[in-house]
# Entry
Amino acid sequence: MGLSSFFRNLFGTAKDSASDLATQAETTFEQVKEAAAPYIEKAETFAEETIAKAKEASEPILDSASEYAHQAKEIVSEYVEKASDSLGEVIDSVKEKASELTTDTKAVALETATNINAKTEVTADKIIDTIPPKE
# Structure
């Protein structure tokens, strides 16, 4: 029975030691948790203050960006209107030139047709004059 009491004492002691260690670990954890609480609160406060400062610092930048975007939109709108007007003027000019060219082409074609008709009549008369009369 000496051996069984040895093991009982050994395992009983190990059990008690493990239980004591668990209790000590729990106590230590609670102490660490209590000691860390102010640091956690400071970190949370620091993070909140930093976020607030970042928001405050970014507001003027965002306002400026919004203002510049609005100005850019106005400038682009102005140029779009000018480009549209210019394009309209170009189209009108092309129509006018095309109309002039069409009129000129009609006049040249009419003159050419008249000249050809006159030359044809002259040539026909010459040909007729060279043909001997029938007897």
Notes: The radius of gyration is 54 Å. Helices lie at 2-130. The chain has one helix and no strands. The first helix runs from residue 2 to 130.
